[in-house]
Design a protein that fits this description.
By secondary structure, the chain is an alpha/beta fold. The chain contains 7 helices and 12 strands. The chain has helices at about 40-50, 50-65, 85-90, 100-110, 150-160, 175-180, 210-220, and strands at about 10, 15, 20-25, 75, 95-100, 115-120, 135-140, 160-170, 190-195, 200-210, 225-230, 255-260. The longest helix is centred in the first third of the chain and has 15 residues, at about 50-65. The protein starts with 8 loop residues before the first strand and ends with a strand.
Length: about 260
């Protein structure tokens, strides 16, 4: 699981997530068009271990949506350093994970153990798994790195059992529209933002897509939407991490979460 979102709208106010974000750039201003997590895997992992947007927002939200996973075979697509895979395993799931970054997979193996079922592979390529191999797939903060969703979603549908669940979190498209008011919300658009992870500045490149483009892609790949969620942060979030105005558990606009059913 990757990426701490910048420019997030916290309780209606534009905020800097824990001082990590410095600048943002639209496609015509992008200085770096690709990033490789191998270059900053350790810094990223250290930063998001206890940060608001991963540790107390995205991961708890995905785990709540997953519910009781005891005995279920789950694929963690874009597992990063493995914190979500570890939590799912602690909850009784049998977890397989993959990431495009070999350095991230190495960190996940350190966390999960040498015998962990982990792979270096790209979600944009055919996956090395059998048809209907998994009860659930989680793809947390992954799809917004991809311009094309058709192939990846078709592959995730292929490896899921009929009736299986795909649990997704992505950058909230409405937040993009507010942070970039001059941009065309309805266009699939590449943009880049810089982040500071454990003192190291890196550029990440994303693809914005409007909500209807997301739901159209889900339907075309053979999924139906079971749940759409805009959650708040976890109840055990340290007070010093809560953005101003969000006290009392008030939700903020950052990521959008889906539970999809393979049909």
């Amino acid at each position: 699981m990757k990426q701490d979102k910048s420019g997030v709208l916290a309780c209606g106010t534009s905020v800097d997530p824990v001082g990590m974000h410095a600048h943002a750039s639209r496609e015509d201003e992008v200085r770096v068009t690709a990033t490789d997590y191998d270059d900053f895997a350790a810094a990223y992992s250290a930063e998001n271990e206890n940060g608001l947007f991963n540790a107390y927002y995205a991961r708890p939200a995905v785990l709540r949506l997953a519910g009781d996973v005891s005995g279920r075979r789950i694929l963690d697509a874009g597992c990063g350093a493995g914190p979500l895979a570890a939590a799912l395993r602690d909850n009784g799931a049998v977890v397989t994970g993959f990431d495009a970054s070999a350095a991230m997979v190495d960190l996940a193996r350190q966390r999960l153990g040498e015998e962990a079922d982990l792979y270096v592979t790209d979600l944009a390529a055919p996956l090395p798994f059998a048809d209907a191999e998994f009860d659930d797939v989680v793809a947390s903060l992954v799809l917004h790195y991809l311009k094309d969703w058709a192939g990846p979603l078709s592959e995730l549908r292929r490896v899921l059992k009929p009736g299986g669940r795909l649990i997704i979190s992505v950058n909230h498209p409405a937040a993009y529209a507010i942070v970039y008011p001059e941009a065309d919300y309805f266009a699939v658009t590449k943009y880049s933002e810089d982040y500071t992870f454990d003192g190291q500045t890196v550029w990440l490149t994303f693809w914005h897509r409007p909500l209807h483009a997301m739901t159209d892609a889900f339907a075309a790949a053979g999924f139906r939407i079971v749940t759409l969620s805009e959650p708040g942060y976890a109840s055990d979030t340290p007070a010093e991490l809560i953005p101003p105005g969000c006290e009392g558990g008030r939700p903020f606009m950052c990521f959008l979460f889906f539970v999809l059913e393979a049909v």
